[in-house]
From TrEMBL:
<feature type="binding site">
    <location>
        <position position="197"/>
    </location>
    <ligand>
        <name>Zn(2+)</name>
    </ligand>
</feature>
<feature type="binding site">
    <location>
        <position position="244"/>
    </location>
    <ligand>
        <name>Zn(2+)</name>
    </ligand>
</feature>
<feature type="binding site">
    <location>
        <position position="202"/>
    </location>
    <ligand>
        <name>Zn(2+)</name>
    </ligand>
</feature>
<dbReference type="InterPro" id="IPR011051">
    <property type="entry name" value="RmlC_Cupin_sf"/>
</dbReference>
<comment type="pathway">
    <text>Glycan metabolism; pectin degradation; 2-dehydro-3-deoxy-D-gluconate from pectin: step 4/5.</text>
</comment>
<dbReference type="InterPro" id="IPR021120">
    <property type="entry name" value="KduI/IolB_isomerase"/>
</dbReference>
<dbReference type="GO" id="GO:0019698">
    <property type="term" value="P:D-galacturonate catabolic process"/>
</dbReference>
<keyword id="KW-0479">Metal-binding</keyword>
<keyword id="KW-0862">Zinc</keyword>
<dbReference type="Pfam" id="PF04962">
    <property type="entry name" value="KduI"/>
</dbReference>
<dbReference type="InterPro" id="IPR007045">
    <property type="entry name" value="KduI"/>
</dbReference>
<dbReference type="InterPro" id="IPR027449">
    <property type="entry name" value="KduI_N"/>
</dbReference>
<comment type="function">
    <text>Catalyzes the isomerization of 5-dehydro-4-deoxy-D-glucuronate to 3-deoxy-D-glycero-2,5-hexodiulosonate.</text>
</comment>
<dbReference type="GO" id="GO:0042840">
    <property type="term" value="P:D-glucuronate catabolic process"/>
</dbReference>
<keyword id="KW-0413">Isomerase</keyword>
<protein>
    <recommendedName>
        <fullName>4-deoxy-L-threo-5-hexosulose-uronate ketol-isomerase</fullName>
        <ecNumber>5.3.1.17</ecNumber>
    </recommendedName>
</protein>
<dbReference type="GO" id="GO:0008697">
    <property type="term" value="F:4-deoxy-L-threo-5-hexosulose-uronate ketol-isomerase activity"/>
</dbReference>
Length: 277
């Protein structure tokens, strides 16, 4: 269990950051290390971003010193999405098999979570975890059970399928919400027109991106944007005051995860494309 901490950044300070400092504060690399759990503890709504890569053995979700708790989920909930081949997760003795892009919600108070290797290929699980004040039951969500919408158009290079796998219309949670967005062939833009939401922070995880291609992720206040180049299997933090949008050199898939005080998916402040700077 390897962990780092990311502190919150003031938008006025953000404006002075160069390339390396932007990457140090917002980009999360190397989330998948064989037979390990890599976590980033953020001071944005105390969201944890993590990756699990069980290859030669099963890996248990353990606590770490920053949490000051006996078990990882003593005061937390977690959403797990399979970003590799079919593999399973055991929750207090009950095994849940997850096909690619299927999700598993686990509520506060669960003591044992174990990630298992895949039978074929290399298992990879991506997760977000947020503080929880109430216990909700463990629930697996298949892609068929997700709330699915089609958005955008090929003419605007942003035709995409959004699968809301862990939102309050599908799963009861305290504050955590997650979903999977797939860009169609020929489309590269996500979350455009851009928006912010002061009630929630967000994290984006990019995957299914060819190894020789990248996504240019945009962040910052709408009138003062910056960008970070992101590779396959990397994630970016987005403060509540920041837009979160991207354009790839190829189509790709990404997972969005949110934490904060509002569970209303449509609670966002939109900005016309022509107003961005």
């Amino acid at each position: 269990m390897n962990h780092t901490t990311r502190h919150a950044v003031h938008p006025e300070d953000f404006k002075s950051y160069g390339t390396q400092k932007l990457r140090e504060h917002f980009l999360m690399e190397n989330l998948f290390v064989q037979d390990s759990i890599e976590v980033v503890y953020t001071l944005y709504d105390r969201l944890i971003v993590g990756g699990v890569n069980p290859v030669t053995k099963s890996v248990k979700l353990d606590t770490f010193p920053t949490l000051r708790s006996e078990n990882f989920l003593d005061r937390r909930e977690i959403g797990i999405i399979n970003v590799g081949p079919e593999a399973s997760v055991t929750v207090e003795g009950t095994e849940y098999t997850l096909a690619p892009k299927e999700a598993l919600y686990i509520g506060k108070g669960v003591k044992e979570v174990v990630f298992h290797p895949a039978n074929t290929g290399e298992a990879k699980f991506y997760f977000n975890s947020a503080p929880a004040h109430h216990t909700y039951p463990t629930k697996k969500v298949s892609l068929a059970e997700a709330e699915t919408v089609e958005m955008g158009a090929l003419e605007n290079s942003n035709h995409r399928t959004i699968r809301k796998v862990l939102i309050n219309s599908v799963v009861e949670s305290c504050q955590l919400q997650m979903g999977v967005t797939e860009l169609k062939t020929g489309s590269v833009w996500n979350t455009m027109p851009a928006h912010t939401h002061d009630r929630r922070m967000e994290a984006y995880f990019y995957f299914e991106l060819p190894e020789d291609q990248m996504v240019c992720h945009f962040l910052g206040e709408p009138q003062e944007t910056r960008h970070i180049w992101v590779k396959n299997n990397e994630a970016v933090l987005s403060p509540p005051w920041s837009i979160h949008s991207g354009a790839g050199t190829s189509n790709y898939t990404f997972i969005w995860g949110m934490a904060g005080e509002n569970l209303d998916y449509n609670d966002m402040d939109k900005f016309p494309i022509t107003d961005l700077k």
